[in-house]
Amino acid sequence: MTMERFIENYHGKEFDLLVIGGGITGATVAYEAASRGLSVALIEKKDFGSATSAATSKMIHGGLRYLSTFEFGLVRESLRERRILSNIAPNFIHPVPFIFSMYKKDKVSAFAMKIGMILYELFSFDKNWLKDKSKKMPYYETISAEKVKELIPIAPTKDLIGGQLYYDCSSHSPERFTLAFVKSAQKYGASVSNYTEMLDFLIEKQGKLKIVKGISALDTLSGKKIEIRSKLVINCAGPWADLVLDKVKKNHEKQELRRSEGIHIVVNKLVENYIFSSSTEKGKHFFLVPYRNKTLIGTTDKEYIGRPDDYKVTKKAILELINDVNKSMEQGELLKYEDVLYTYGGLRPLVEDQTEDVYNSSRKYEITGEKKNGIAGLITVEGGKYTTSRMLAEKAINKAFKILKYPNKASISEKEYIYSSEIEDFAEFIATKQQQYSFLKPEQVTFLAKSYGNEIDKVLSIFTENSELQQILNADGENLAQVIYAIRYEMAKTLPDILLRRTCLALLGNPGKEIIEKIANIAAKELSWKPEKVQEEIQKMETILKIPE
Question: 90-173+260-360 — its CATH code?
Fold first, then answer.
């Protein structure tokens, strides 16, 4: 299937539903709606999954820490959804072991932690109700201080009393996972388009009631303005949701959405095999995550005040994270600023404003019809987290059917594989592909199979048919054929699209000038870029990859 920007050939069709925002929430909402028979359009002002959805810790988890705030419903829903995502996206979602260390000084006692783990296991009673038995998740166990040190040599020894070894899930590539939901929506007939910015709502007035009839939008690639008609609009703009809503509410002074900044850094390998969780003096947790023979560290949770379009990772934020890690570790100066190979960050939308510290704010979500504000034809979705995005979408579309007064159709998203993930036994799938593509190292085939699922055959057919595209670009086996695939089949329009979201080539830091220029030249041929555009794209990429000074 080839992804196509519908905005380039749109001729005024009225959709049942228009989704604003192409992050994980918008992608799952569009898929849910299209798979239940609605005509759907999905627009994203930049690239799919390029904002909050690309700023994750690469986990799909139940939220162990939400037990301490008694959000049992959220934990149970998250654990159920973790299982569902494991079933419908087996190439993306994988069990991974966590070690939660326990110290005498911890705010949460070892006894309370043990009770928490028992509750976590009870809430995840169905965790092994899996289609793929190769992904079975072991039960937790309490381990000794000696065992913690054996598995995590860098763990501080002082006052260490043991740890909890348990399993949650990792998300191989949140960017490609989001894209897979967009593709799933398109498979069911949704019209999708990146680089399409919502400008304003199309409004009809009925007395005091404002009725939303669609939007005006800008194709930022061509500069063309267009009106898109729909019976219902769903605002899934994440940290921008209140700003989108303000275009119709005109309530400019009131900020309804809190935004929390979360950053991550990539450094050379500190841990392997196990995700290690430690906590700061203030009791906030951070993770050291084994990631592609490096270590991913995050996340922070700090309120962000300002325009979301102006957000960027700062040196101050990186230093604060490094300081938290160093203070928590025995080595004193485990990390230095110059150790940072790559950094990224994003803004989380939070719907709760009752807590002083955003770390303690809920990750619950809200689905709001705007009738109470005198607005019809509009739903706003706010808050939530990656793990619960599918369930959020199901609930949002249930509400959409009621507003549209259509006979409701049952959701299929809980049972059906997402696009390219139709794999019943992932271990067997990997073994077959490793044999089929023996010209690559086994671990490279595994990496590509996780990234592409069943699409690996299309990607590697491009690889085998053109010797000029057979250069292996990193230890994970990523190659130039992926660049062609990203442009021709996956709607990649810029160098960051290719390097950060269709491939993982730049997610460990700068892959080097030679590789960036080679990819830019391939993109130039495919996308008809002029020399000045090539340089502009290279400069854009270098700016993204530069560590803040």
Answer: 3.30.9.10
